Amino acid sequence: MPLGTIDRTPPPFFRQGYSALTKVIFFSALALFLMVADTRLAVTTPLRAALAAVLNPIQRALLVPVEMVEGGSDYLRGLRQALEGEDAARRQATLLAERAAAAEQLRDENTRLRALLDMKPALPVRAQAAQVLYEASDPFSRKVFIDRGMTQGIVAGSPVLTDSGVIGQVTRAYPLSSEVTLVTDKDAAIPVLNRRTQQRGAAFGGIAQGSAMELRFVAANADVKVGDELRTSGIDGVYPPDLPVARVASVERLAEGGFARVILAPAAPFDGVRHVLVLEPLSVQMPARPAPEPVADKPAGKARK
Questions:
Q1: Residue 268: strand, helix, or coil
Q2: Does the N terminus or the C terminus of the chain have fewer Cβ atoms within 10 A?
Q3: Four-residue CA torsion sign, 150, 108, 190, 179
Q4: pLDDT of residue 245
Q5: CB atoms within 10 A of CB 188
Q6: Domain limit, last residue, from 56, 90, 122
Q7: Cα atoms in the 13 Å half-sphere on the side-chain side of 30
Q8: Are residues 93 and 199 in the same domain?
Q9: Using an 8 Å Cβ cutoff, are 145 and 179 in contact?
Q10: 231 φ, ψ to 5°?
Q11: Whether residue 238 is found in the same domain as residue 98
Q12: Is 262 in contact with 218 (CB distance < 8 Å)?
């Protein structure tokens, strides 16, 4: 091959083209021109808008996982805060309910104590307030225990009442507590006076209904009506007179019997009673009976002659 025909140019791989410095200067000038043109003439605004419109679906698609993660985190955080708020609200509601119940209980106790204190000056005997501790475990009796005993001056036979009326009598006194037999107990009896007719009688407990009493020894033709109010007569030397005891609940007149069956409803409720008033028996405050005067011996008569 003739030497003149040989291509001595370097292959494309080894071609250098423009130098690097030239390229840097060119592109720098182009960038500067585009920035100035965009600032002054806004020539790239349509291109940027078109590019943003094309890339917007892609950006939204790429942001979906991020938004799901953030949304899930916010949901879980909000759910946790809601549960914590609900627990706090429930605790607050429980606390408010307890406070309301305690306030209502204190109000009821205050009302009962005020009623007892208002009743106390009108009574002709000495009295002191007491609190019911518990009820006797014997199912066949109606007895309660109070927190006053011989140390506080309580004696057996002391009447016990509430602001509604008589509920019983102290049957045993201990140093720091006392046993109170309720008027509905099978061994309880109390003399009463019919406020309407002024007839005296005796009310007994221990009938079939555990919360009722019976007016015994009433003649079949006696003037007794449903609703009659019975109060203490005061003739027994224990209960002061005119204290509410019971009301007549029913009257059953038997033609073949000489007596009527009179059922009484106690004036004072026994269930839920916490504070009572203990009176001193009338017999303690009554003056002692004077001792009989000795009979002087008659002077011996003169001996007969």
A1: coil
A2: C
A3: negative
A4: 92
A5: 20
A6: 122
A7: 6
A8: no
A9: yes
A10: -125, 165
A11: no
A12: yes
- Beta carbons of 295 and 250 less than 8 angstroms apart: no
- CA dihedral 173→177→178→182, nearest 10 degrees, is 180
- Let me know if residue 294 belongs to a domain: no
CA distance 59 to 69: 16
- Same domain assignment for residues 202 and 67: no
**Pick from 154, 181, 161: which is nearest to 231 by CA?**
161
3 state SS of 162: coil
Q: What is the model's pLDDT at position 305?
A: 43
Q: Would you say 182 and 269 are in contact if contact means Cβ atoms under 8 Å apart?
A: no
Q: Is 102 helix (H, G, I), strand (E, B) or coil?
A: helix
Query: What pTM does this model have?
Result: 0.56
Cα–Cα distance for residue pair 226/194, rounded to 1 Å: 12
Same domain for 118 and 239, yes or no, is no
Q: Which amino acid is located at 90 in the chain?
A: R
91 inside domain = yes
pLDDT tens readout for residues 190-227 = 999 999 998 999 999 877 656 788 998 888 888 899 99
Check whether residue 133 and residue 68 sit in a common domain: no
Structure tokens at 32: 């500067």
In a domain, 90, yes or no: yes
**162 and 78 both lie in a single domain:** no
200 CB-near residues (< 8 Å, 6+ apart): 191, 192, 193, 194, 233, 235
Neighbouring residues of 153: CB distance < 8 A, sequence distance ≥ 6: 128, 280
Domains: count for the chain: 2
> The domain containing residue 248 runs over which residues?
126-285
Where does residue 18 fall: left (phi above 0), alpha (psi -120 to 50 degrees), or beta otherwise? beta
User: Do 144 and 247 sit in the same domain of this protein?
Assistant: yes
Between 35-44, 98-107, 230-239, the lowest mean confidence (pLDDT) is in 35-44
The domain spanning residue 193 has which CATH number?
A: 2.40.10.340
